[in-house]
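User: Round two. Same drill as before: sequence, then structure, for each protein.

Assistant: Same drill it is. First protein:
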Amino acid sequence: MEYNISGIGNVSTVLRPEARLAAESRLLGWNVPPEELRHIPEHWLTYAEPPESLNYLLGTLYIFFTILSLIGNGLVIWVFSAAKSLRTPSNILVINLAICDFLMMCKTPIFIYNSFNQGFALGNLGCQIYGIIGSYTGIGASATNAFIAYDRFNVITRPMEGKMTHGKAIAMIVFIYMYATPFVVACYTETWGRFVPEGYLTSCTFDYLTDNFDTRMFVATIFFFSFFCPTSMILYYYSQIVGHVFSHEKALRDQAKKMNVESLRSNVDKSKETAEIRIAKAAITICFLFFVSWTPYGVMSLIGAFGDRTLLTPGATMIPACTCKMVACIDPFVYAISHPRYRMELQKRCPWLAISEKNADSTSVASTSTTQEQQQTTAA
């Protein structure tokens, strides 16, 4: 294949290492061994090498992301697994999401090493490891978020019928990884799609740039099953939750108005509903973060397969890669903010974190005792 690239010459010339080194402005992949060049989409090899400072900045940013995510998600996995009060069927899905986020950041040493060595330093082997882990954790996180939305929908809208069991939760997790496996195997064996470097050649993902029908079909399929389907489920279930909560609240207010009382709920019922709604809010927040972080990646892959590829500069494609990692850092802190039992267990096991969380049970007991004392005093 031969075509001119901004006066540099044809692609066959650009791909020769001696020509790339001789250029006034070195091109991406100048330091890649000739036998490794075939693994890199030609689209990236036509761009100038980025300044070293940008690679160092990204490498440093990923070090920060990695430390934050491993600590945060590690605490979620440890506390939710070790605390008996948190080992509920619903929380098995929470643990799986934390595992996906944790493993997603376990592959970042490959990115960091490549960044500090200016490109495709770990070669195709590092790229395959990066792609495999990224696919399992990315698809796993999207499917887990969808099942969390389904579970919250059942708990809030059908509390008596839709109870989650340990068996059902484990079956969901097995399904999630079986769901991701065909895409991973297809790319790794290159029977349909492949894992290739992208952007500054420091990260890897599935190929969305090769100009043929198979690639376009693969991109459309993986976009539909790993992004569109989970996102549609998330939007449907949470819209149903919001609708149910609003209609339930309206019905209670109307009934209270008819009975000339302020509220139909007891203190116990109020606290119970508050806990459920807070958990639902946490799940909605995490799913929103998932949507915000993965949408740029989905759009980028569609542009690469079906749109104007000149929009996909190396620098632009590193932004979606960063947003995907950033959400893995934020998720565990959403749980820490919104889950009272998690904060209680964290306070008990890690007192050095200086978390101040009151025990809900003791608070309700104290409140009940105070009410009884007031009633006795009034009677006297």
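Second protein:
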Amino acid sequence: MMSPKPSASASADGGGGASSSRSTPTARSTPLQVIHILGNFMRIWSVYSLYSYLSNSGDSIVGFIFSCLVPTSVIFLVLQKPWKGRPLPNSQVVPTVVNGGILALYFVLWGKGLLACGPLVALLAEYAGAVLGVLSAALYGRKVNIWKKIGGLAAMLVAYYLLSNGWSTRTHSPLYSFGSEPLEKATQTIGMKEMVVPITAGILSALRRVLARRVSLKNQLKRRLHAITIASATCFLFPFAMWDTILGSASDSIVKLQLPSWAYLSTVVFGMVLIFYVDNVAEEKLHLVFSSPRHLMVSTGCIIVLEILYKMDFSLFGFLVCSVILGFGIFEATSLERSKKSPLEAHELSNGVFHNQLPISELPS
């Protein structure tokens, strides 16, 4: 007996169902992508506000960051309540506390780099953590990709070298720049010597993310441990803030901070609290990690808008050239069999997250 042929309507419905199933993930991810873009825009806006405030007020960057970390740690502790539920073992708590020390050092170096190099360079230097992919390939990876990663590292160094020579500024860029009005303050060339501080901060930021992924295997556990990390970073930064307050040029810097100012509120809300949840959603739902060309593309668009709004010494074409070279370098430095692995897994492997990882039993949530 011959089976009946499927009707045209049935085949049409089947095709429509297949097409709708293919389009559904994109439709569902669109709101998350909008949230990711807006969250990063608000975070970058807080960086420009912080730079404008600190460059005009002369307050201590260490004291300011410490005063921001205090309410941030309270907010995370209240929201996540790491003391509730199953007790966390020392194998997770101890590395998390150490990670808090790395986070405190990152904040200090990042703040120093922000004041020395400006927000544009400080934001792009955060992507220097992609060099961990090169180190991972050299130590654990397959040798077939090592030269590709070294080429990506060379491209990143070229991008940072161009940035240090002022290619992103209208004053020193050899490329044409929009705008003919005189600048209020021309930007001096930075030099690679000054670039070491924000680049080191970017590498520490990537190292902190790698350690956080290795310690926490569940999303809920990651949030609990992040609360401990922020509290630990606040404790590590406390003596440095007190030392800077007592012996620094601004002896009453913490006391005289304008806490209700937009720079302070935006740094706490958007620069420390909200961005953690935004990046967490992007990583879990969109498979979009920080040190990736896609993330750099979002940051590039936000930086262009804010450079124009704040009327900075800015060269659009020079900045785009540096961003394209940096994105290409990140793409090559973090490449690892992208055709066989998801973007998130490939990036974590390129950062050495799963190399030499021992079997771990299920962790408490």
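Residues 33-178+189-350 form one domain.

User: Perfect.
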